[in-house]
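ARCHIVE CARD
SHELF: 3
SLOT: left
DATA:
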Amino acid sequence: MSFTWPALLLALVLLPVTALVLWGLERRRERTAQAFADAHLLGSVLRPASRAHRRWPLALQLLALGVLLFAAARPVALLPLPVNKAAVVLAIDTSRSMLASDLNPNRLEAARAIALEFVNLAPPSTQIGLTSFSDVATVLVPPTTDRERLREAISQLKIAQNTSLASAVVTGVRMLPGRKDVRPPEELTPRMFSLPDVQPSTPPTLQPEKMPPGAILIISDGVNNTSSNPEISASDGLRIATRFASQWKVRVYTVGVGREGGAIMQLNGQNYFVPFEPRTLQTLAQETDGKYTYAPSREALREVFAELGTVIRWEPTRTEVSALLSGVALILLVLAGALNLHWQRRVP
């Protein structure tokens, strides 16, 4: 256990001081009664209660004070809390082809809008990660329930160079809970991944069927024109990555951004034809039991979460327990007052 304000623990010295003050006041009341009351009426003046009837309420009050003073230091404890281990990784294409203006104002802005809508529709307990990809995939936000962090990262996406869909798939798989130590396919070189902790081999204890459910949502124009391994074409690399996702029980959902027939884009004073290739995205989704959508509706985006499901597991989580302790102190005070009212017909 740790404390946000540990200096306030010094306030606990008030506990014995308060006990001494209360004991002194009780002794003073007894001496005053003995000094001024007639000896024959002393019993009526003092009406002494049993020791248990006096001490139990007082002990509960002092305990409540101690709990409140302890809570003032804002203790933080590791408590087992339910956590939804189901997660989705958003993979957004940031290659130059996403600057094509066949969607208003361009493909990247359309992808950004879809990603933000997806985050807004997500159930609060579902973890969402974010990666952008061009020549390589870059982890921007590990899976989290912090929606504001995701929105900020999405708003700051920048255009890069070419497109490697294989990099997006493999990096997305390794971002998902339980799959961090999974080794990427041998055919793909490690330099394509932004995750630096590549293991020499996948630990034998990792079993795909026991992994929490995970999915990747790729938002792209489908152009796939680069591979990290010069000996493997971009299409072959994507096929390898697709098998990798299926092996580790990860569904890949894809969203196409662009228009049939492609677009002409001007870059550095020259015109370039930028294709829109939905078939690549359709094949990727089909072979991983995912789905491809174009111009997705809110219902289509919600379907990703519905098919993902929920897996609740108890995990130790750092949690401030001040409110919990304050509630305990309140219960103790109420109990002390009830005992006083019952035994001595008064509430201190």
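SLOT: right
DATA:
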Amino acid sequence: MANLTPGDVIKQLQAGSHAGLYYLYGKDVAGVAAFTKRLIKKLDGDVQKYDGRDLDLEQLADAVGQYSMFAQTNVILINDPPAEDWSADRIQSFLKCLEDVPPSTVVICNVTGFDVCGGKKAPTPKHKKLIDFFGKHGVVCNFEAKTAAQLVKPMMERASRSGCSLSRQNAEQIAQLCLCDTMRIGNELDKLCAYAEGGEITGEAISMLVAREDSLNAFALARAVTARNGRAAMEALDILSQQRNEPVMLLSAITSAFLDLYRAKAAQAAGKHHEHVLEDFLYKGREFAVKNAFRDAGKSSLEQMRACILILRDTDAALKSTRLDGRILIEEAITRMLAVER
């Protein structure tokens, strides 16, 4: 078929038709996850779920050919097929399983644990092979990251469904505080609606309840550094400085963000999933940090990450052993990190 928007897919389903194959990916991870649930609900069939990391191709081939005894549709969900870690032969075998999908079977591949583009503008060659196949034989949906302006309308509608009113200006403020992370926006809106108790979500309530978390701002700084965007890095530093006046604590927040990225990059290099990092490094309550790190770690190399962490280590030692202005030392560290080759 083609590359379609989520809205186009829903229209097809409402018209009584569906594709046999769906590939869902993009920067908006929460959007991918939410639409996957919506798609499965619309298909109203028996669902078999598979982890792409541990996918048994013989078992998959058998599942594709099965006919459901209790529903009209046999739905197969494959989460995070790691094409970049597969050999050419395995990719070919995987696609062969999907060449002749029966009319009663729908196979959904959704990517929520890594960036198929590897930090670039276009998908990596191996992931592109999967995407091209799904685009030819089914439907591909790319959930691109949304801007604050794009998020305003659905945020206002969500608040309205909860019996609350939310102005455009306040919705945009929430989106910016959450760095346009749709998953966190949803959580913050639920909290604000509960506080408003059916009334208006005010700017005062947002300032009180939606924290401008230094971990998010520190991550924005780290992301800007790895993307070699000096202006954005210094702007993020200004915001962090307003929250943490003590240079040692400020540097600690920045270092923590770089460690998140380094762990994600190392996990990707080892073929691990974001859930492994969540478990191994006890990120409970900070799942967004790991998902964001997995999304953006592809923009840099392990060597770049190591060099940046060493610069931060040296800066920490300087902060604790000299009387030099802490802000200047941190700015120097950011300048040095921006100069590190990817």
